[in-house]
Records
---
Amino acid sequence: KEEVLRPRHVHVDFSQFIALHRACELERTVRGGGPFFAGAYAIQKPPLALLTIIDTLQKADIDINSLCEQVERTPAFSHFLMSTASQDNRLRLPVTHLKQAILTYGLERVGDMLIQFALMERLTQHTYPLLSIGKQFTHLSCAIASQLVALSDTKLTPQSASLLTTFVCAPLFTLPGLKVASQLPVSDSHYFQIHRTFKVKAQVPWHTVAGELAANWHQGATWRALIHNAGKRHHDVPNSLKKEHAIIQLAFGLAREALFPLPHPDEDSENTKSALLRTLSLSQADITLLLNRLSDYLFCPFPLTELN
């Protein structure tokens, strides 16, 4: 019994401890791993690798093989293109070659896809309470914008409309007031006025934040002008941008209407919505069909207990 209750001899001399510590130095060295904390990347500028790819895509004569080599230097880009191409082809056949993925989408679309992918990766790199609903709102808005382009005669392509909408939604991930909020402060009115959709106090207007980000990410002058006009009422926008303005405003407003519906929308929002639809020669029936096609985006990101 005394042997069982006697404490074990578990201490070592300090000199012996130092000797053991030095003997295990090689085993303590981490090889091939990454840092314990994930790296943080600046949101206000695109990755240098992406700029190189965009410069290549803007050339008149593009060498596909050289472009593939540049994309492959960033594994996240090549994996994104191949996995997306595997899901988008009709037979759902796995795409294992980057060149095949690039040719599937075309050079112009690939550029917008990579910019949007890199932008969303940086906007969502940090976790905060409203990240999930912010991503859902952005994805739904982008999908609506792409669908509206397919129904309209406009300078935008579905992919460029989706990219522009991502920039317009970017303040959801950058404004300090939304980083600490536990609920998205949705306005009870002004569905189709981007800078008044959410009740956020900020020194810089919503569309200005989005426009500065688009400029830093090397977007063209026309797209920057469109984002700059996103804070204006539709009748104040130049005629040359009215259709594109209507698409962005409708995408933002319809996403807000679908995710945060009110039993009785205000009259001003309904009048603005009607004006936007007239600009695109669309009807409410078209919008109903559009939203039905996007029903997969209309899930609730919160546990049901948070809604009671």
---
Amino acid sequence: MSKKKRNRNKLNQNNSTPLNVNENIAIKHKIPEMEMEISKLEHEISSLQNKIAMLKIEKNNFNKKKQDAENKQKKLLKDKNQQQQHIDSLNKKAAEIREAIRKIDELKLATHTENSNSELLTILQQSNTMKTPNGENDDKTLAVAVRYKLNDLIFYTNDKNLKNKATSVGVKTS
């Protein structure tokens, strides 16, 4: 055997010698304290393990809520995009319809308009040059419309009062 191994064996033999009685009693008094300390530590470990388990469950719940919120956000964004596309297509159709209405109105004017004779042009020019109240000019214009109302005349104007007057004398307005 080597010297190192022999020295170790001697040390082990020295450490394994019985303790004296006082040391034995001191250790026996510490055992209940140590057992209580061990019990407290085991209780703390158990409590911490329970807290860890609860926190893991809570984390999983939060992750599920987060995932649900992200899915809802994606769905809302998709719905928003679809609605925007639908609105854009409706706006495009509305623009096409407005253009079609303009063309129809132009077509109506083109097919139902006839050249006026020189008397009508003279009356209209006089009404523009004369310094008369607006009501008299309206009456002159209406007189011309009444004269031609037998030809399915439709009177176009943006003047609401003039429209009302024309309707009251039997002229169709638009």
---
Amino acid sequence: MIKTLLFVALATLVVAGSLWLAEYPGDVQLSAGSLQIDVPLPIFALCLLLFAVIAALLYRMWRGLRGAPRGTRAYFTRRNREKGYRALTQGMVAVAAGDAGEASRQARKADSLLKEPPLTMLLSAQAAQLDGDDEAAKRYFTAMLEREETAFLGLRGLLMQAQRDGHHGEALTLAHRARALRPKTPWVLTTLLELQIEGHHWREALNTLDEAVRRKAIDADKAGHDKAVLLLACSQVADDAKDADEALSFARKAHAQKPDFLPATLRFAALSAASGKKRQATKIIEEGWAKTPHGALATLYGALDDSADPLKRVKRLEKLAALNADHPESHMALAEALMAAKIWGAARAHLEKAGGETPPARVCKLMAQLEEGEHGNMDSARSWLLRATLSAPDPTWICGGCGAASRDWTPTCARCDALGTLQWRIPERALILEDYSQAPASFLPPPTVATDAPSDMVPLDAILPPPPDIKGSDAPDDKPDDKRADDAPTSAQR
């Protein structure tokens, strides 16, 4: 629009000038010494116009010649930049494709064309990593630390190398430096948290976890569980340092953070009882029993009563069991208390309810104790112990990540170092031996008969001992003729 207006204005001036010259004709006289020239006014005006045009063209040519070297340099620089960026892109594609040779070649090409190390150092480092040259990659990442714009990428590369090589202290230091540069970056917070947990820096991990939740770098539900675990870890450290008050304080916070978390309930109740707060411990156990019954809770609940009278212990545990009357743990806790009080019939009834059709190993062991204590029937007791080896194993702490079993709860798995993955449940039956010939017979699965077995094969019922009667008997059974049951190793003998 502006160009159009300028053209119209210029055309108007030319037309107006032409009309003026036509209306007022005349001559222009030029004299130089004895030389005198008379030129008509229109021709003189035309000559002036031509002179201006020629002067403008000459000036433009002069400027072009003067700026030619700089323009040539700019052209080649622009072309090299385009080729360099193309090489940089192709190098990144080669890294993604796992082509170490092509990535290195494109990195060298991009470096020679761009002459900008910040753009090519990362590609060179990744190409070196892909080629297995960790030392070269480390040199590139270290060089990146010297430039502000690449320092964060250099720290990340060095951090990943340190983690891969198992250099925990170096990795933790680099993670702190990365956090100082980019405190809001999610992966920095999660990596720092993992390293602090791996190094058992529980209090620092608590602070990092809180910040990660504020930055929304970690899921809120998982963070709540992890925080309870970290608080329990702090409680254990304080307890080991003989700081009972701080240990109890951390346990209280863990229980408040996740009231249905069994390890928090167990620890808070135990520390409360140890500090003389029996009423508080009783309340904690009763609330926990209604949600997650556990044998350790029943043991601690019974120990809160100083009385040595077994009948009083039975009465006390009846109150606890009533809070979750149908749970097997309630029946087993009552059965143990009744057996201690020598009330055998009631104890047997509770064990029958706890075991059902397929009693687990713990019920089988208690039945063995009952048979020995009530009737002195050692044959029946051994039969129950043998059955225990073939029954579902007792619950224990199992890692939900790797499946490793642990006798006691710990904040992290001893095998995979995962935080808060131990769960109280029945493990899968498994036997791992270097030489299976060394396995006790009771640990091996029963033999199976092929479908095409010969008709004269001896049936299994003829060689296996009869299963024990869960209902019990009033007198010891006669010893069977077959001595295999007596010869079989029991869990007590092992």
---
Amino acid sequence: MDEKEKFDFVYDNYKESFKLCKEAQIDRNKFFFIIVVLTAFLFLMTIYPTETIATFQSFIKTKMNIEVKFNFFVIQSIIWFLLLYYTMQYYQKNIYVERQYGYLADIEDVLSTKIHRTLNREGKNYLKSYPLYSDFIDWIYKFGFPLISITLIVVKISNEWIYQNHNLGIIFDSIIALFIIILTILYMLFLHQNFKLSIWVNMIYGKFKNIKK
């Protein structure tokens, strides 16, 4: 393989990686919107239970041509489960995007040495073109959304235990809520693993990494 073929190979890999990264960003934004809608739906069920259930059943009938007559607790648990699923998808996509920008930066370094010019279209340019805007968006993804998510989850599940009948549905909802909180904490730890953390957070994160190995 001559130098041109090597360059073409690396550049093709760069273009494909960039394409996959953009597709992942689109999916991430879609999942973010779905999470917001599902979370809002859970709170609306608390405030306007009858109207919210009617809207949910109408949506299912319109989209799937299926007429369902689930009770309040079943629908609530279904939405909790969907929230867990899309939260997992959202975190996976966002972690993938973070990793891809580092990978793109490495490829740009290789290409720069080949053409003897600085190439930083995506990787290194990610947080440099619009630093204030990028820092704000970065803060939302890494701090704002996870913290708001945990707060809303705790408020909602606490509300269920205080104001609703204690049944298997609430136990299921509580388990789902716990999974979401754990996922969110692990997500934040992953994003900030290169930051200086407190001693106990470092210890927990280290044990988690050893378990994964």
